[in-house]
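Quick one:
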Amino acid sequence: MLLAVLEQRAGVGVARADVFASVAGGVRVTEAGVDLAVALGVAGARLGAAVDGRTVALGELGLGGEIRQVPQAPRRLAEAARLGFDRALVPPSTPAVAGIEVVPVADLGAALAAGLRPVASPRAVA
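Output:
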């Protein structure tokens, strides 16, 4: 579903790509709170861009590309701040949390614009 939304709502061409996502430690992810983070990772890989290592993304991705709230967002953001993250891409309804900059993103396009930065291409080795 995430790939279809990336293709249709954000214009990121992934329909003809083989996409594999892996979580550190081999944990199975079964909740929608990681939708935005996974979509940013896949889009970044396809577009040659990356999310800053001190940014966290939290939100469910809807079929229309909208970013939806997830349960216990303030608690999750407080834990992210404790772990050293200083910026969070979140749905607009997310309240402010001490220690972390909350960046509201209403849809996938806004999240890609706020979260992805171009990565310099590696130099060819002779």
